[in-house]
Every structure is written in structure tokens, then in C-alpha cells.
Amino acid sequence: MAKKAEKKPKGKRPQEQEMRVPTSVDGKELRGIVRIAGRDLKGHWKLTRALQTIKGLGPSIGKVLSKAVITQLSLTNKTLVGELSEKQVEQIEQIISNPSKCGVADFMLNRQRDYVGGKPHHLISTDLAYAIKQDIDHEKDSQTWKGYRHSYGQPVRGQRTRTTGRKGMSVGVMKKAAKAGAAAASAATGADKGKEKAEKK
């Protein structure tokens, strides 16, 4: 008879195991997730990388603003997001929302020719999404060519539509089975027409 396998002592379940608190190089405790400008950022990310992931901040303006944040808040390039305090997060949000006050050039802002205010400014997160939606609705109401293309769901900036952007049934593409069925149907109709002609004669 085969011997029964010895039962190993059961360890703690994953839920019962003690959670390890992430720490920085200096030994400080890190927060796992920090919310900046309506976006959840991971605590082990560096500040420069984290700012570039916010909607409205790309690589170029993200680097400029991260340098401004580091100089104004007396931080370092290796500062992690999880090390920031609530007060520092508020100061970062103020700097991000008003980049022109930090010496950022107008050509780096995302609202340079705004038809509402006329002055160049920068929008981030939900404000940017809302402004884009308002712009599209304005184009539709004005009945411009861009608005027409937006309303019909077509490419707006002159892209080709012959091979891409198709919606619904494919045009000009027939599979073998469909071809065979079409050929059989045409042959059947041809035979019926031939019979009718023969009967008339």
C-alpha cells in the first residue's frame, strides 16, 4: 500500500499575512497611491515621470513643470510621489494649473488660440476633456466642415477613407463562400429566364 503523503503545516492566507509598507531609500514610509489633479499616481514613481502621466501634461511641459516644482518646493530629482505631504500636493496642483506663472512659454500651452477668452492658457485633467467636447460642439453648431465630419464620425484632418475607418459592412470584399453563393444564384436566375423564353416561343 502506498504511504499517505505527510500534510505540510498550513501557512497564513494572503489576506492574513502582514502587509509590507513600502519605504524609500532614506527609510521613510511611502504612500501607495497619491491623487494629484484628479489622477491616481503610484507612490514609487519619481515626480518627473508621475507628472507626465497627468492628462494635459506631455513630456516637454512635464519636464519643465517638474523642474519648477523641484526648485519651488526644494525637492530633489529622486523624490518619489509617495514621500509628498498633503500641503506639497496642493502646491504642486497650483503650479500645474498655472504654468505661465512659472515662466512656461506660450507655445507650450495647450490653449493658445482660445476663441472664448482670447488669451493663451493651459488646461489639465477633466477641464481639458470638457473644453475639447465644447470645441467639437461649437464646430457642429457652426456647421463647419470639421463639424460635419465630426457629426458623421469621419476623420477630420484629411485622412484617407478608402481603406481605413470603415464602419458597418465591408465594401468591395467578398469571401469565397459568398462568391460561390452569388454565382449559384446568378446561374439559377439565368436558367429560369431561359425557360421563360423557351415557353414563350
Can you characterise this structure?
The mean pLDDT is 81. Helix 4 packs across helix 5. The protein has a two-stranded antiparallel ribbon with strand order 1-2. Among the domains are: 33-104, Helicase, Ruva Protein, domain 3 (Orthogonal Bundle), CATH 1.10.8; 108-151, no CATH class. It is built from six helices and two strands, in the order E-E-H-H-H-H-H-H. It has helices at 47-52, 59-72, 86-97, 125-142, 145-151, 176-200, and strands at residues 33-36, 39-42. The chain has 201 residues and is mainly alpha-helical. The relative contact order is 0.08. The chain is 41% helix and 4% strand. The termini are far apart.
Sum this structure up briefly.
The protein has 201 residues and is mainly α. The chain is built from six helices and two strands. Among the domains are: 33-104, Helicase, Ruva Protein, domain 3, CATH 1.10.8.50; 108-151, no CATH class.
By CATH, the architecture of the domain at 33-104 is named: Orthogonal Bundle
Q: What structural class do helix, strand and pairing data support?
A: mainly alpha
Rg, Cα atoms, Å? 32 Å
Helix content: 40-55%
Labels describing this entry:
2 strands, single chain, 201 residues, Helicase, Ruva Protein, domain 3, 6 helices, two-stranded antiparallel ribbon, flat, 41% helix
What is the fold's blueprint, element by element?
Elements: E1 33-36, E2 39-42, H1 47-52, H2 59-72, H3 86-97, H4 125-142, H5 145-151, H6 176-200
Helix pairs in contact: 4-5
